[in-house]
């Protein structure tokens, strides 16, 4: 994003606009935190802003200020389409290819609104009028903080904005432990705490609100954990039957894959989760060091993301997907052992 872009966006936002803000499908803490943080900021400039999420998000994010105002495209399509069709500006946050917006893809690509992308994933598509894309950023929330700062409005960041942005930075950095966390990230969260974000409360809301069933599901996932030492790889499977047994709810499997990655000498981890409703296997991939799960997912599982965290899917059944995954590993043996 150039200084000239910022100048133009500042001019654009000088008068009240109709604005739609969109996170990616199955939004996580960074997606909901960044869209709501930006929403609260835009309201301060008297814009008419609406966050429209492709679908619902986990309960552990449902403490964020005004989260109940977020529209869900899958259940509120008509109202959402009207807003998208009449919007002056559409912000797309925490994703960089329109198909990550799921069923909203069509409406977004047809929209003639000015599009502003704020995102930290690799290989962005060129759909936006203004692109703030930086793969070195810890999170989209850190970028929204910078965006507000570049517009000269740091002083407008209040406790609501600060809490939303803090939550997204915390979740996307694995509580400030992933390599994407920089000294600048810490300066940003320090400022957010100064502006009223209660770091301890936010951590509790997100990580200490587990249901007993989720703990049982984790037990099941860990029982299913398999290790392939020759490829420094570990993986977990969860079938639909297992999910049903423990009354799976959206967000329950968040972070499970990290247990596989935490094993000594393992640098590549995967979780395969059966989704009978959509007839797919949802895949999460994680790595340590230079082994790019973004490239791996793009090559084999129709997905992408970051070097050390990516997602993807498979249209085969669970057993065949895992067999397929194992059969691919020999071609990465050198890469995995040279880390
Ligand atoms: P997760 O495994 O937690 O779903 O996602 C890990 C990272 O990869 C996140 O940054 C997420 O936005 C991204 N991601 C997940 N699924 C996909 C996908 O299907 N395509 C792309 N391009 N990115 C994905
Ligand atoms: Mn993110």
Task: Itemize the secondary structure elements and their pairings.
Elements (H helix, E strand, L loop, with lengths): L2 H10 L5 E5 L6 H16 L3 E6 L17 E2 L4 H10 L2 E5 L11 H6 L3 E6 L10 E4 L6 H11 L8 H14 L10 H12 L4 H9 L4 H12 L2 E3 L4 E6 L1 H6 L10 H6 L6 E8 L4 E8 L5 H8 L3 E2 L3 E6 L3 H11 L4 H5 L2
Parallel strand pairs: 1-2, 1-4, 2-3, 4-5, 5-6, 8-9
Antiparallel strand pairs: 7-8, 9-10, 10-12, 11-12
Helix pairs in contact: 2-5, 2-6, 5-6, 6-7, 6-8
Could you characterize what this model shows?
- It is a single chain.
- With 339 residues, the chain is an alpha/beta fold.
- Helices cover 40% and strands 18% of the residues.
- Strands 3-2-1-4-5-6 form a six-stranded parallel beta sheet, sandwiched between helices. It has a six-stranded mixed beta sheet with strand order 7-8-9-10-12-11.
- Helix 2 (29-44) runs antiparallel to helix 6, helix 6 (159-172) runs antiparallel to helix 7 (183-194) and helix 6 packs across helix 8 (199-207).
- It is globular, with a radius of gyration of 20 Å.
- The two termini are 34 Å apart.
- The relative contact order is 0.10.
- Guanosine-5'-monophosphate binds at residues 24, 97, 100, 284, 303-306, 309-312.
Features:
single chain; 339 residues; alpha/beta; inorganic pyrophosphatase (n-terminal core); Diaminopimelate Epimerase, Chain A, domain 1; 2 domains; six-stranded parallel sheet; six-stranded mixed sheet; 14 helices; 40% helix; binds guanosine-5'-monophosphate; binds manganese (II) ion; nucleic acid binding; DHHA1_dom; Bifunctional oligoribonuclease/PAP phosphatase NrnA; DDH_dom
